[in-house]
Amino acid sequence: MNHRLPPADGEVLDRTKALTFTWNGKKLEGFEGDTITSALMANGHHIIGRSMKYHRPRGVLTADFWDPNTTVQVGDEPNVRASHRKLEAGMQVVAQNVWPSLSFDIKAANGLVGRFLTAGFYYKTFMKPAALWPRYEHVLAKFAPGGEVDLDTPHGRYDKRFAHPDVVVAGGGPAGLSAAIAAAEAGSSVMLVEHEHHVGGHLLWGTEEDRARVADLTAAALAAGVEILTNSTVTGRYEDNWIAILQRNHPGVVERLIKARAKTLVVAAGTIERPYVFEGNDLPGVMTSGAVRRLITMYGVKPGKQAVVFSANESGEAAIDDLRRAGVSIARVVDALTGERIVSTKGSKKRVKEVLLEDGAKIKCDLVVTAVGWTTPTSLLNMAGDRPVYDADAARFFPSGAPDNVLATGGMVGDGSLDDLIEHGRVTGELAAGRAAVVRHRLQVATARAETVDEAEPGYLADERTPLDRWPHPELFRASTHGIVDYSEDVSSKDLYSAAAEGFDSVELIKRFTTATMGPSQGKLETVNTVAVLAQARGDSIGDVGTTVWRPPYAPISLGALAGRINEPTRLSVIQPWHEANGATPILAGQWVRPDHYGDPLSEVRNTRENVGIIDVTPLGKLDLQGPDVANLLSLLYTNKWMQLPIGSVRYGIMCAEDGVVLDDGVTARLDEEHYLMTTTSSGAARIWSWIEMWLQTERPEWQVHVTPVTTGLTSINIAGPKSRALLGRLTDIDLDNEAFPYMRVRQGLIAGIEQCIAWRIGFTGELSYEIHVPSGHGLAVWERLLAEGADLGVKPFGLEAQRIMRLEKGHFIVGQDTDGLSKAPVTGLDPLLKFDKDDWAGLPEVRWSLESGDHPVIVACQPDDRSIVPEEAAQILRSGTTEIVGRITSSRMSPTLERSICLAQVSKEFADAGTSLEVLLVDGRRITATVIEHHAHFDPEGERLRG
Amino acid sequence: MLLVPCPNCGPRNAADLSYNGESRPRPDPQTCSPEEWRTYLYLRDNPSGWLVESWYCSSGCRKHFTIERHTLTGELRTPILPGSKPGATKGSTK
Fold first, then answer.
1. Three-class secondary structure of residue A428 per DSSP
2. Is the N or C terminus of chain A more exposed, i.e. has fewer CB atoms within 10 Å?
């Protein structure tokens, strides 16, 4: 650690804890508290990475979160910010964007052919001829920036938290700390969010007294009950102060996203030091004054041996003191305030060697420090609607005004002594707390339940803060030479000039064309320089050019944090444990885990057709409807008639949306005078419940209908097959005689000793079948009784696949499978169910017009002429010998009953007549023929089996 | 995320509710022309300013209601349950 300074006040290192890590395979040592960058620099490694386009060697620029030059790979994690990430023992750190090695990078040759990679490179290069694009892509992929993604990386855990603080303070510098304390002392619950590892802001690399103030403020904040989140970033401010906070140091998770609904947001983001644009400004050894101050004071790193300091402000002055204290000799102070300027630097491949000044002096050095001014990171204020305004005297942008519940303080709104900043923060905190109290009171009033809120609303506080001063600062953006503006995107001022010359002369256009400000630094270092260079190129003022709109996120956020934990619920029937214990292969159908089959779906079909099978159909949506107006409701939502449905009967119906498209289908039973049980498709259960509520609440509020979803309250079992009557007869007191209980009727009674069960006869599978609905607490017992009592009848369970085959043999369509989002009701071919003599039903006009026009496709059953071929579902149906698509196969299977392939298809009407030959394009490119058959049903078209 | 004042539940995250868009009357399905019906289905005024729209408190009380929203500022006012009067409901926090 030859570049490590002796221990000193202010350092955040624990020198008793040495940590071993590797850098490109080489073993090195750092201390607890080091960042990866500071540990590397302490070991004399000052090239941390290579730039993304030209592969130029890069070293530290800002030595903080925003450093664009120090992105590395750590183990299997790419794109780690080495100047922010704390060193850990055993880290395997590898440079990114290098090949074959960091010190010798072949792609650095890009620098020589840089003119081919200029502005708009992405839009202009490799476009023609188009046929060569696959080759271009292959080569370009090797040059793509970023680390290596390891596809076998174990998924880290991410989490989310919901918070409801009165006040969120973004930024833990002196003003932010002071605002948090004042707000908390005024009675607010306060979250203080600091994106670095320690609160204190610029005081951390200041004087001993500065750090004593930090300690005092921190102690006061904790005593006042402020929740301090470090290494966390407020990434966005959304409507009504919905604040997204990314927390990177929560134990047990990689990252945590905090969704905070704040009553007031205080933005105290401080200022960010701007780099200076000049030739060679990205050579290793060129850095900001803040970088050297942080490296020396916080991390005990000596950043060079001989420095040239270009200074326009007090930060530069302080850096000179720090450098002297660290034993760095000062070769020259270039005083910007007296008009001195640097022009360019020269360097070796590895480091800056010489600076050229405007007065012609050439000075040898290995460190160039710039202190040329500040950028105000107004992002969060922009997100609240603020449009920052440029102040030429202070050479930076200032906020112009945000909503009442967003307040700014600290360096972003002006300059002042430490006491001035702390006082401004204090008054801001009190104002934030006062306004939060008003919102809190209104929330209590708006959500009060049993108790009413007695106190009067607190008075609204006007903003009477005394504004901070604005100190004059020279406008310093670019030297007389061209240099890098956006380090992470490798965009130079020359690129911006040529883009402006090509007509991309608005700040929003030039950003998109050159990608300047679009890299991982999110414009924090680049935006103002981009604006300034564009202003120069246009011969305009910065104020006239304006700035880009800063959108969320403030800092990049990982997709893992946005996703959070996987909380997707799955739903299970009470019989599911039995299915699992009996070899069921599960399938996820919507949210439901269901048995697809128990080993052999084809034999399940055969057994059901020959003997009797049972299937767990609990996921079927079920709605209990009661009240005098249920028949009116059914009549309004189904296309067919319901007013005369007798008690004890079941009817099938189709529902349409208002655009006439088939929304759902199912059967509904009338159990009693004013009591019905509706079934919906499994996936439609929740949607149809909401659909019914919408009609009842908005269009027919006078109707009396009570809707109760009972999908999981009832376990539903379909008993199907020629022996189903014999099986159910052994378990029930319901008279199952075909005269007493015919097809499409419903009965209630005792089943397997359980009272109040419902049974109805329907025929989805095409067999004689009874669908029973039993209270779900008894569902598993009834299932097991059916299997035990029917052993001699050959009863076997069947799964979803067998049911799908049997319904396809019967030609029953499935909503969403055989229909789609364009299929209006006439597509089903069930014209007798469309009743136009009713006054009204959902979708009526569209269905009528569709039927009248007659140009809709229809569902048909078709039979491939080669009966051994099963066309893929969604296979196209073409006009013979052409590529004109006239339909598609919607369902297809090999029928074990008929021992041939069977299909349903949607085809244009001209292809719908029985006997029409269809040309079907298979996925492998073959064209086969299929013939439309007379009925939808391939099997038992007369329905004798289900009525028997 | 907007804080939507459900007249029944009070202010809730917009994600707790379903947005049903601009509120518009349903034409008489027996007499309307295709133009009228399709205007009802698809066309929205999308004004820059105050807009009456329908929301459904899908994760709360499951009530449908209308509310006025300012499309520029996101401000919400006068939530009304169908059939009730404005002012009888709880207000917003602004």
1. helix
2. C
Beta strand A329-335 pairing with A306-311:
parallel
Which chain A residues are Cβ-neighbours of B10 within 8 angstroms? 443, 446-448
User: What angle, rounded to 10 degrees, do the helices at A630-637 and A685-694 form?
Assistant: 110
Q: CA of B87, closest CA in chain A: separation in Å? A: 13
Beta bridge mates, A690? none
Shortest distance between the Cα of B79 and any Cα of chain A, in A, equals 12
Q: Is residue B34 part of a domain?
A: yes
Residues A423, A502 within the same domain: no
Tell me what the mean pLDDT of segment A583-596 comes to.
Answer: 94
Residue count of chain A = 948
Number of domains in chain A: 5
The letter for the amino acid at A419 is D
User: What is the b/e burial string over B8-47, where b = at least 16 CB atoms within 10 angstroms of the residue's CB?
Assistant: bbbbbbbeebbeeebbeeebebeeeeeeebbebbeeeeee
- Closest residue by Cα to residue A692 from A755, A629, A762, A617: A629
In A710-779, at which residue ranges do the beta strands (DSSP E only) sit? Answer: 714-720, 746-751, 754-761, 769-775
B74 touches chain A (CB under 8 A): yes
Of all residues in chain B, the one with the smallest CA distance to A441 is B93
Indicate yes or no: CB of B90 within 8 angstroms of CB of A445. Answer: yes
Single-letter amino acid, residue A492? S
Query: With an 8 Å Cβ cutoff, are A849 and B18 in contact?
Result: no
Task: List pLDDT tens digits, range A396-407.
Answer: 999 998 899 999
SS3 state at A256? strand
Residue B64 lies in a domain: yes
Q: What is the rounded average pLDDT of the residues B69-86?
A: 84
In this predicted structure, what is the pLDDT of residue A722?
A: 96
Domain that holds residue A68: 14-143
Tens-place pLDDT, residues A331-371: 999 999 999 999 999 998 789 999 999 999 999 999 999 99
A240 and B1 within 8 Å at the Cβ level: the answer is yes
Closest CB from A690, A841, A846 relative to B56: A690
Residues A39, A41, A47, A52, CA torsion sign? positive
Question: Is A831 a domain residue?
Answer: no
Name the residue in chain B with its Cα closest to that of A698: B82
Could you list the residue range(s) of the whole structural domain that residue B65 is in? 3-80
Read off the pLDDT of residues A705-755 as tens digits, 9 standing for 90 and up. 999 999 999 999 999 999 999 999 999 999 999 999 999 999 999 999 999
CB A808, CB A904: distance < 8 Å: yes
A150 in a structural domain: no
Buried b / exposed e over A476-490, threshold 16 CB at 10 Å, is: bbbbebbbbbbbbbb
In a domain, B86, yes or no: no
Kindly report, residue by residue over A563-587, the tens digit of the pLDDT: 888 778 899 999 999 999 999 999 9
The Cα A707–Cα A698 span in angstroms is 15
Q: Judge whether A404 lies within some domain.
A: yes
CATH of residue B34's domain is 3.30.2270.10
Q: If you count them, how many residues does chain B have? A: 94
Q: What is the pLDDT of residues A627-684, one digit of tens each?
A: 999 999 999 999 999 999 999 999 999 999 999 999 999 999 999 999 999 999 999 9
Residue B69: pLDDT band by 50, 70, 90 thresholds? very high
Pick the residue from chain B with its C-alpha nearest to A657.
B41
Residues A433, A435, A438: CA angle, nearest 5 degrees: 110
Which residues, listed in sequence order, are joined to residue A71 by a DSSP beta bridge? A81
pLDDT (mean) for A274-281 = 96
Instruction: Find where tokens 């395997």 sit.
Output: A92
pLDDT at A145: 64
Q: What pLDDT digit, counting tens, does each position of A772-806 carry?
A: 999 999 999 999 999 999 999 999 999 999 999 99
Q: How far is A602 from A608, CA to CA, in rounded Å?
A: 10
How do beta strands A227-229 and A190-193 pair? parallel
Is B11 near chain A, with CB under 8 Å?
Answer: yes
